[in-house]
Design a protein that fits this description.
- The structure is a single chain.
- By secondary structure, the protein is of the alpha+beta class.
- 69% of the residues lie in helices and 9% in strands.
- The chain has helices spanning 2-20, 22-28, 32-70, 77-105, 112-136, 140-156, 162-182, 187-232, 243-255, 272-278, 281-299, 323-340, 367-383, and strands spanning 262-269, 305-310, 313-319, 352-359, 389-391, 394-396.
- Strands 2-3-1-4-5-6 form a 6-stranded mixed sheet, with helices on both faces.
- Helix 13 (367-383) links the parallel strand 4 (352-359) and strand 5.
- Helix 3 (32-70) runs antiparallel to helix 4.
């Protein structure tokens, strides 16, 4: 029995958190960006839903206006005028506001305060239109049903918190209760009006909070997944991309349809296997790390795609470059490694050999072919004595 009570208390506590908004604050208190994005997302969703609802509502109002005008007579002049006033308010008021809402949420930079005000005004205008139509028919059942219809629409379309929901339905609720009391509505109808209003407030608040919590949780999950992807695509030693990360970035280049000059610059550390055999693992790691950082300094102004392709080989992807720049750029990398003067353990210094390939502007971007050509040019340069640059089947080395 105690366990059951604890479960009930937990459910009630969680439900109260949802209604009060504490659940949203708990999820977003450490992520201000999520909170701002949530407000933008809610405004956008509510704007779309409001505009979507306004189209059939205005069409229906136009049809009923025509029917009201054609059936107007001296006997029902009062009812017809009130109905027509409510229908025209829907057509003109709600129609104008829906156009303004559509124009506002289509802007690149949303004015959230202005948009929220227009959304509240739209639903208040719609409720006022229904009140005028209700005055045309004093039958308790008819105006009560219209109020229930209004609550149903408010539950389905806008996503509102407790305060917003209470603000919008309060005028119509007071109107319905007063109208029922004046024209002698039975107590059960008044009771149902109160029950449905309370049910709407609870349901709309719960839906709103659940939607917000889902949005924030989903964003946090996406952020965590993105962080894991970045960790998974980085080389743990040097901090640059690994081969998997490189292929992902190359796929991004294809997706955005890049049609500018693209080049691949492969470089490998000369005699690194021999260096590793005569030095400790930590010294080998430090050597690779220092060479990679040296190349990053040179390459940073030109590219942000630097990856460790495997072992002692690295690759840079360079965009927006001309072919006559590539050899000098590769030479700069080779010279910088040479200037570091890292001892190789055999009375010499560590050097690097570079292989380059490129795709001309407008050519089809096949990154497999691009990388293969750069590897082939690297192999050619190594066969030609190392510490040089291979490009288009030729070997370059500026003294």
């Amino acid at each position: 029995m105690t366990g059951f009570k604890n479960i009930v208390k937990s459910v009630i506590s969680d439900y109260a958190k949802h209604l009060s908004g504490n659940k949203i604050r708990e999820l977003s208190e450490q992520d201000a960006l999520s909170k701002n994005l949530l407000q933008q997302h809610l405004c956008t969703v509510n704007s779309r839903r409001t505009v979507f609802f306004s189209v059939p509502a205005i069409v229906a109002a136009i049809v009923f206006s025509v029917l009201t005008i054609t059936s107007m007579s001296a006997e029902n002049i009062r009812e017809s005028v009130l109905s027509l006033a409510g229908l025209l308010l829907t057509i003109i008021g709600c129609g104008s506001l829906s156009v303004l809402i559509y124009r506002e949420f289509r802007r690149k930079k949303l004015n959230l305060i202005k948009l929220r005000r227009m959304l509240v005004l739209f639903w208040l205008c719609f409720s006022l239109a229904l009140m005028l139509i209700s005055l045309a028919d004093m039958s308790c059942n008819v105006y009560a049903r219209r109020f229930y219809l209004f609550l149903t629409v408010m539950t389905v379309f806008p996503l509102l918190n407790f305060k917003q929901s209470l603000l919008i339905i309060s005028p119509y609720l007071v109107f319905s209760v007063v109208l029922g009391a004046v024209f002698g509505a039975d107590p059960f109808t008044l009771f149902l009006t109160a029950v449905f209003s309370l049910a709407y407030l609870l349901i709309s608040s719960l839906v709103y909070t659940s939607y917000c919590c889902l949005f924030i949780s989903d964003r946090k999950l996406n952020t965590a997944n993105e962080r894991c992807r970045q960790i998974n695509e980085k080389d743990s030693l040097t901090g640059v991309l690994n081969k998997k990360g490189l292929l992902h970035r190359l796929t991004d280049i294809i997706d955005r349809g890049a049609d500018n000059n693209i080049a691949a610059v492969f470089f490998g550390v000369d005699n690194f296997k021999e260096y590793n055999r005569t030095h400790t693992d930590s010294e080998g790691d430090e050597c690779l790390y220092n060479i990679c950082k040296c190349v990053q300094i040179v390459a940073k102004p030109v590219t942000d795609i630097i990856a460790r392709y495997g072992g002692d080989e690295f690759v840079l992807i360079v965009e927006n470059t001309k072919e006559y720049d590539l050899v000098s750029f590769a030479e700069q990398i080779r010279k910088n490694v040479e200037r570091m003067a890292l001892p190789d353990g055999n009375d010499g210094i560590m050097t690097a050999t570079v292989g380059v390939s490129s795709i001309a502007d407008g050519d089809f971007f096949d990154y497999s072919k691009l990388l293969k050509e750069a590897e082939d040019n690297l192999a050619l340069a190594k066969k030609s004595g190392k510490n040089c640059v291979g490009y288009m089947g030729n070997v370059f080395k500026v003294k």
